[in-house]
Design brief:
- This protein is of the alpha/beta class and about 400 residues long.
- It folds into two domains: about 170 residues, HUPs (Rossmann fold), CATH 3.40.50.620; about 120 residues, Argininosuccinate synthetase, chain A, domain 2.
- The strands form three sheets. The protein has a five-stranded parallel beta sheet, sandwiched between helices. It has a four-stranded antiparallel beta sheet with strand order 6-7-11-10, with no helix packed on it. A four-stranded antiparallel beta sheet has the order 9-8-12-13, with helices on one face.
- A hairpin with a 5-residue loop joins strand 10 and strand 11.
- The longest helix is centred in the first third of the chain and has 20 residues.
- The radius of gyration is 25 Å and the shape is elongated.
- The N and C termini lie far apart (about 80 Å).
């Protein structure tokens, strides 16, 4: 009997796929990769997998690895996909593939299965990571198989299947949007969220954040320390970002497969860290280096979003950012208030900010007379071009 490892979340899709794989004759080893999902009962999920017929079910704790080796390097780039998305799901998928392939090697499974649809980005992230880590591995993606789609044309049929087999699930026909969560964020999509006339912030039952309108009426402070671009210490109460309505986004994005889709996201912790790092970089990072990083960051965001994590170009870019951030050390205090992040104070032993140079008061170490020659040189091309091809003053 063939065997496979299933990236198992206990949600609607993987609960159905576990039963379908068994119907197809597979011995299934369910792997729940623990990424700090804040709203999930891990033991209940394992029990559900065993009750569903999994030959084995295990939890693999990858929370520290997710932050250290995946989220923080992306944070150092301050990379966001299409301006707003912090890519909490994108970052996690390659790590899930890695952990599942490790289990597959241990149990002798010849295939790796996942529940990503054939319309979405996650299928790309899972498979591109698997191809890079174990070339030639058999990847089973049921949603790309006609036989599976004929049996389960949509979520209604899947929910009915679970009801018939008494498989407990969170999804229902009355609340059909799906969610994905880890310690970085929670994403919400599908169902009624596909209708752009629906207010996503009002529809979704958020698991990490409260609305800015219901956040406390007084600001709260949080202090964060960075060493070489990596957050190393936080002085503040837990859940402070979510309590203050930080990090909600509702956006229409361009999927890698070509279509536009709507996603609602909440990422309070990462939103705070992105802002905090920016304030330290403003002190420590050279102008031209910062601008180069900012030009390359969208490229990094695309690669991460599309699933090209284990890729030679991204390897080189990650080596670059580690070097670029080596002086980004310091402390910042932020004030959080009803969805807003305001800087309270910042300092760094490597600060390039010199008050004596920057002051607008008289004196100081900057000689304003020097600007005369600087501007004569900078303006030379404009003067030459203006004489050759005059511009109208009208």
């Amino acid at each position: 009997m063939p065997s496979c490892v299933l990236a198992y979340s206990g949600g609607l899709d993987t609960s159905v796929i576990l039963g379908w794989l068994r119907d197809e004759g597979f011995t299934v080893h369910a792997v729940y990769v623990d990424l700090g999902q804040p709203c999930e009962d891990r033991e209940a999920i394992l029990e559900k997998a065993r009750n569903g017929g999994a030959a084995s079910a295990r939890i693999v704790d990858a929370q520290e690895e997710l932050c250290r080796d995946f989220a923080f390097p992306v944070l150092m780039w301050r990379a966001k996909y299409e301006t707003d998305y912090l890519m909490g799901t994108s970052i996690a998928r390659p790590l899930i593939s890695k952990k599942c392939l490790q289990v597959a090697r241990e149990v002798g499974a010849e295939a790796y299965a996942h529940g990503a649809t054939g319309k979405g980005n996650d299928q790309c992230r899972f498979q591109l990571a698997a191809d890079a880590l174990q070339p030639g591995v058999r990847v089973i993606a049921p949603w790309r198989m006609e036989s599976f789609r004929q049996r389960f044309p949509g979520r209604t049929e899947m929910i009915r299947y679970c009801d018939e087999r008494r498989i407990p699930i969170k999804a229902s026909t009355s609340k059909p949007y799906s969610s994905d969560e880890n310690c970085l964020h929670i994403s919400y999509e599908a169902g009624r969220l596909e209708d752009l006339r629906v207010n996503g912030f009002e529809l979704v039952e958020f698991g990490m954040t409260r609305s800015p309108q219901s956040a406390p009426d007084t600001p709260e402070n949080v202090s964060i320390r960075f060493e070489a671009g990596v957050p190393t210490a936080i002085n503040g109460r837990s859940l402070i970002g979510g309590r203050n309505g930080i990090g909600r986004v509702d956006m229409v994005e361009n999927r890698f497969v070509g279509m536009k889709s709507r996603g609602v996201y909440e990422a309070p912790g990462m939103t705070i860290l992105y802002a905090a790092l920016m304030y330290i970089e403003q002190l420590t990072m050279d102008r031209d280096l910062m601008h180069l990083r900012d030009r390359l960051a969208p490229e990094v965001a695309e690669m991460v979003y599309y699933g090209f994590w284990y890729n030679a170009k991204l390897d080189a870019l990650m080596a670059f950012i580690r070097n670029a951030q080596r002086h980004t050390t310091g402390d910042v205090t932020l004030q959080l208030y009803k969805g807003n992040i305001l800087v309270d104070s910042r300092s760094s032993p490597n600060s390039l900010y010199d008050e004596g140079i920057a002051t607008m008061e008289g004196g100081g170490s900057y000689n304003q007379t020097d600007a005369e020659g600087f501007l004569r040189i900078q303006g030379l091309p404009s003067r030459v071009q203006g004489r050759v091809t005059p511009r109208s003053l009208e």
